[in-house]
Amino acid sequence: MGRLFLVELEGRCYRCRFCDTPLALADDVISRTFNCRQGRAYLFSNVVNVTVGMTEERVMLSGTHTVEDVFCCRCGQILGWTYVASHDKSQKYKEGKFVLERWRIAEEVTEELSLNGGHHGSSDPDNS
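The structure corresponding to this sequence follows.
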């Protein structure tokens, strides 16, 4: 196999849960309300570091779509799918977009977030 070159993302991003490869910027999330067979999914305008599978027709909750499965380019794990074409005019907005299943991705936590709400020291009340 050849050398693998990954696109690094700057800013808050989502990563492959299995190998930590950067996949998409948080700013590229279009919708967090998608559902799939395995639960919740997010619709993205753009993703990186993925490969796509064979084009196929798939009957989904929103109708019949032409889709391609999306895989992590590093570990090969299936992450979701991309919409190639929609047969329903009301679903055309999905064309060219990517759905990543929520349980297959992890949101990167930035260092700016504080786990203790910005308070330093002990969480015990002062008993002086």
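The radius of gyration is 19 Å.
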